[in-house]
Amino acid sequence: MRIILYLGKGGVGKTTVSASTATAIARSGKRVLIMSTDVAHSLADALGVELSATPVEVENNLFAMEVNVLAEIRENWTELYSYFSSILMNDGANEVVAEELAVVPGMEEMISLRYIWKAAKSGLYDAIVVDAAPTGETMRLLGMPESYGWYSEKIGGWHSKAIGFAAPLLNRFMPKKNIFKLMPEVNDHMKELHGMLQDKSVTTFRVVVNPENMVIKEALRVQTYLNLFGYKLDAVIVNKILPASSSDDYLNSLIALQQKYLKVIDDCFYPIPIFKASQATREVIKTDQLYALSQQMFDGHNPIEVLYADDKTQSIEKIDGKYVLKLHMPNVEITKLNVNIKGDELLVDINNFRKSIVLPNILVGRKTEGADFEGGHLNITFAN
User: What EC number(s) are associated with this protein in UniProt (predicted)?
Assistant: First the structure.
């Protein structure tokens, strides 16, 4: 069983790459489900078929679906949904507005995760490919399994104390059915899914980029946060690469800029394998074109496999009250190493090689206190 999640900034071609991967896996003889968790779905357009929240067979072994949050809430979360809707309507919101606003923070991410969990538990598929929402929404989604447990315990504890302390007052506002009883069951699902997402033989993440500065910066943040959550990045897909040369001066200037950023991508994501796809001369839609793209992109590699099986490239630990950033850098010459911080970036220079690491918020603003090299890892200590 494999779960592959594609991440990246909006507009990089994430849906096309995801659909291409799923098509290649299906045509290799494996049953695969591709699902979109993006609110602005475009998966149906890429595949050229109508999709819904129920898997549709696109061709032999290839199934596809688009997560519908509101439909899922109405079907399976009616108690919670009705509770918040009624509160909003009591406060003067009309019924339509109340229904839209009743999607409480975190519910969309939780429902998307539930779809992944259900598909993985069904046993119907050899692989699940997730066309995820743009980076910000997906980072919240990936943080949900850990944070949900904390919130459910806090809210559950608050609820028990509050009911005992002020039952006469709160009974006016609480639903007849106890919505808080849902939390332990959902929490169990979240814990199980969290285990799946952190099992590096089951789940891997792939980031899609274009050779552009802002896109690369965001992809580096993705890498940092995946490591922070303990998730495995096994490939970088560089999409929309222009030809090596052109007779047109304008195109040549764009090509030169792309070549510069292709070098940055190679340097920053090493040793993660990088796969490349050319800028298409027409829309890549429907399965035959998607399959042709996969053949160019993976160039003989099987996309269902874990494409990078080594240790994490970086991790963050708290040792003796201080944060330590560990970078996997086997065989590095420590005497030729230089480390600097520029804004929210950590710049690691080794000879002519530079690795740029976007720091998580918890490390931004802290000064480095020291560094050492042990067991193939560069360990950088940050001051409190």
Answer: 7.3.2.7
Residue 201 neighbours by CB distance under 10 Å: 10
233-241 vs 274-278, strand pairing mode: parallel
34 and 68 part of one domain: yes
55: helix, strand or coil? coil
> Which of 9-13, 37-41, 207-211 has the lowest average pLDDT?
37-41
Structure tokens at 305: 């496999």
Tokens 């560089």 belong to 238
Query: pLDDT digit string (tens) for 69-112?
Result: 777 766 665 555 565 556 555 655 555 544 544 455 556 667 78
Instruction: For residue 175, give the CATH number of its domain.
Output: 3.40.50.300
Statement to judge: residues 279 and 324 lie in one domain: no
Give CA–CA dist 45/128, Å, rounded. 19
What is the DSSP code string of 306-326?
Answer: -S--S--SEEEEEETTEEEEE
> How many other CB atoms are there within 10 angstroms of residue 75's CB atom?
11
94 in a structural domain: no
What is the separation, in whole angstroms, between the first and last Cα of the chain?
Answer: 42
What token pair was written down for 59? 């061709």
Residue in this structure with the two tokens 């033989």, named with its chain if needed: 201
Separation between Cα atoms, residue 158 and residue 156, nearest integer Å: 5
Instruction: Name the residue with tokens 């040792």.
Output: 319
pTM, whole model, 2 decimals?
0.77
Q: What domain range includes position 372?
A: 314-382
Cα–Cα distances in Å, from 322 out to 230, 338, 348, 362? 19, 21, 20, 11
